[in-house]
Write a structure and sequence with these properties.
The strands form two sheets. The protein has a three-stranded antiparallel beta sheet, with helices on one face. It has a two-stranded antiparallel ribbon with strand order 1-2. It is 52% helix and 9% strand. With 275 residues, it is mainly alpha-helical. β4 and β5 form a beta hairpin. The radius of gyration is 19 Å and the shape is flat. It has a single domain, classed as Tetratricopeptide repeat domain (Serine Threonine Protein Phosphatase 5, Tetratricopeptide repeat). α5 packs across α6.
Length: 275
């Protein structure tokens, strides 16, 4: 019998249009089961028995705002029942895969296959959002708007809705994040709005640096296997990546470099080696 957990995973993985707010651009399979980055340095925010503390775990960022602490991967709650698939998602998330982090955050937020934990949901959304995962950015904005796992903060909600709307606007307008952004803008004073826009600019630069480091790593990995990479932004703002090798071509168009490069990387890895 199919469990709610497996239905959710099938929706998230087989229908990436849902993950990226039903965007009509190139369908990109979200490979949440494949670890793609080095392990994340973690900080403990749990009691000795491994249960979440009652207070929202937070830290002060360099910009001065209160942000969710990073989860301790060695003390994450186990699934309600033995579930190797969930464990692989959890492992990928703790090793840095942004799509896996976003999916795991949703599982914790909804208590599907795991005990509901809004604090952990916000933590994993933040990890993914910092890498430019636009759905995680939208969901993190929702957490701040409604006080779900983090202190309620409309300024923070504006910041993450703004980043998410920009991340997806090139191929599908501003999407749901844009609608949420318009709504919350009405509730901010001019002073708070200026502060929020300043922070958006600050985070855009940080995320862009992470994005560049990640796709540079992919370029180097594919280059070792003989793939030549080209990249450009088209007239509609789409981020286009193309890989060529011995007459074979892999290409992708997406709202940002993270998605485009991850897609091309998966395509190249799937090409059979010529014997």
């Amino acid at each position: 019998m199919e469990t709610p957990f497996f239905r959710l995973v099938q929706i998230e993985m087989k229908n990436p249009k849902i993950i990226f707010n039903a965007r009509p651009w190139v369908i990109i399979t979200v490979a949440v089961m494949i670890p793609t980055m080095s392990a994340i340095a973690t900080s403990t925010s749990f009691e000795s028995k491994g249960q979440p503390t009652t207070e929202v775990p937070t830290t002060k960022s360099e910009a001065g705002e209160v942000t969710p602490s990073e989860p301790d991967r060695d003390k994450l709650p186990a699934a309600k029942a033995k579930n190797p698939f969930f464990e692989r998602i959890q492992l990928s998330a703790t090793q840095g895969d942004a799509d896996a982090q976003c999916l795991l955050g949703k599982l914790y937020a909804e208590g599907d296959g795991i005990e509901k934990n809004l604090k952990l949901a916000a933590q994993f959304y933040r990890l993914a959002a910092d890498q430019g995962q636009d759905l995680a950015q939208q969901r993190l904005g929702d957490c701040y708007q409604n006080g779900l796992g983090v202190p309620k903060n409309d300024t923070e909600a504006y910041v993450w809705f703004s980043l998410s709307a920009e991340n997806g606007q090139t191929l599908n307008g501003r999407g749901r994040a844009g609608e949420l952004l318009d709504e919350i803008t009405k509730d901010l004073s001019p002073k708070k709005l200026v502060r929020a826009k300043t922070k958006v600019s600050h985070l855009q630069k940080k995320i862009a640096l992470k994005e560049k480091a990640n796709y540079t790593k992919i370029i180097n990995q594919l280059g070792k296997n003989g793939w030549k990479i080209s990249m450009n932004i088209d007239k509609n703002g789409g981020h286009c990546v193309k890989a060529k090798k011995e007459g074979e071509t892999s290409q992708s168009q997406a709202p940002n470099w993270r998605v485009a490069f991850n897609s091309v990387k998966r395509q190249c890895e799937d090409w059979p080696e010529k014997g």
